[in-house]
Amino acid sequence: MVKKFLRGINVSFLLLIIISTFSSCANEMNIFEGNNNRQINFSVSVPEWKNTDSLATTKTSRAMPIGGSSLSTSNTFNLIADQNDGAGNYTTLISSQAVSYTNNIWKTSNDYYWSGITNKTINFYAYYPTSISGNISHTAGSSPTLLYTVPSDVSNQIDIITAINPNVSGSTETSTPLTFNHIFAAVKFAVGTSGLPSGTIKSITINGIKNSGTYTFGSGWTLGSTTSSFTVSPSTTINGTSGENIASDDFTLMMIPQAFNNATVSLVYNNGTTFSTTISGTWNAGGVYTYKLSKTIISNFTYTGASQTFTVQYTGTYRIQCWGAQGRCQGAYTSGNIYLNKGTNLYVYVGSAGVQSSTSLSSPTVFNGGGGYTSGCLDYNNSTGGGATDIRLVNGNWDDFSSLKSRIIVAAGGGGNIGPMTKPGYGGTLTSADADGAYPQSTFPSEYGTVSGVTQTSGYSFGIGQTGNSGTNSSRSGGGGGYYGGYAYHCAASGGSSFISGYPGCNAISASSTSTNIIPTGSPNHYSGYIFINSSMIAGDSSMPSPSGSTEVGHLGAGYARITFISAN
After folding, report:
1. What percent of the chain has pLDDT above 90?
2. Residue 207 phi, psi dihedral angles, 5° rounding
């Protein structure tokens, strides 16, 4: 009897366990697998910035929260969700609640579930970063709006992304996709094809851009009425070569999309040098706009027969290049970099080319020191020396001693040798070579002439080449102009010497000198304190840069000078 009772209890207990287990499974399915109680969760993607300039490659920008094509699983964004009751009436189901990556899904901090009824649709609105919540307004059934003013300090500008997915069916059983998009345009700056002076960039300012507006989720921006200026201060040093980024991505401007006309962009170097330009265009949300800035300041000087003035516009380093004029032989080349202050005046003297003529020259010299020739042998071989090309600190007649001794760079002119010669009189460097006017054949007498070259301290005259001398076989040539001018005798003439302040081996006349015999001691300097660096001297018989940008072997024709602003440092 007892066994039968116990057997009855065991059967009842087993039945109870079975019923209990069945009930438990049914409840779990009702929560997670039922037709009307699936949990709401999300899949997230974020398109990368769209570069609109050939300089840039697709990359993330400053303040951009995305790694690759999706939000990092460590990020949190906010969500607003409005639910339709099926009859067109909306209530807010989720109000700016945080969404994070939890248990391998994106979900709100509180759990929400689908109704399971198709026409009970939900409109989803998401935004990042969560810090903008206080600027967002929302009414159930309408898209949220963001009232925003772009901070003038670019370091405080943020990258805002938003996503919408409207009218999602209440019977949805999969993760709801949220595709975020950038609501700003990214603006950057780079060096243009014509380059910029090198130097340290203090700031870039863009002025005349709308700075505020209202953003409606899914619709875009309504611009405010005010404009503002925005300044980045990268403190980065550029070489000024084409394509170089002027500032890193940390200084990308996040601007409200808009169309604009004649906005001003100003680039300021640490020394105060400022370049400005205007831009017009249209910025679209999600676009990267890289503006290529160029400023090339080159002043070219050709022969005019008079001094020419160069006034320094911007404080910084300038490259000065000089080409001495050709006599019958080619002129020399000098160049160097020098620091100049805004407002400084330099005086440019470009030498005259040597004159070849069958008539004698009425003047003993040509402009800037080329020696003339005298009458006697009236054939086409008559030739003056070429004038030097130089830069001075004191204006005046080209042969005025006070002006001549203020020269800080000189490219020598070539001698007026007739040809063919055994030793041509090319424009020289620190010194010039001897010249020989005799033909190679031994039948011609030595009277055709041999002359010595010149140096930094000696020559025919300071800045002036010698005029050809009368003689048995007449005079046909003149010495080249230079720091010291070349010698001339009959058919032979040497070129002048060149000079660069600060160049090793150069010697400058002192400030108080009234004579060419006073040479300062010590390191090569100029009394004015103007010193060149990265200097070069090339004689007229060697390959050198040409004014056209190519190369030439010695300079032909009249002299030439070029002053280029290369660095704001």
Report:
1. 63
2. -125, 145
Query: Average pLDDT of the chain?
Result: 84
Q: How far apart are CA 415 and CA 425, in angstroms?
A: 5
Angle among Cα 336, 337, 340 to the nearest 5 degrees reads 130
Q: Mention every residue, 6+ apart, whose C-beta is less than 8 A from residue 274.
A: 266, 267, 268
Whether the pLDDT of residue 544 is over 90: the answer is yes
* Strand (E) or helix (H) holding 29: helix 2-32
- Sheet with 42-45, side-by-side order of all strands: 176-179, 42-45, 105-108, 90-102, 77-84, 122-128, 161-168, 181-182
CB 459 within 8 A of CB 410: no
pLDDT value for 381: 60
Domain ranges of the chain: 42-143+151-182
- Amino acid residing at 189: F
Cα gap 266→58, rounded to integer Å:
26
124-160 pLDDT, tens per residue?
999 999 999 999 999 999 999 999 999 988 888 888 9
Predicted pLDDT of residue 440:
52
| Sign of the Cα pseudo-torsion (500, 320, 429, 462, in order) | negative
42-143+151-182 to CATH, choices 3.30.70, 2.60.40, 3.40.50, 2.70.98:
2.60.40
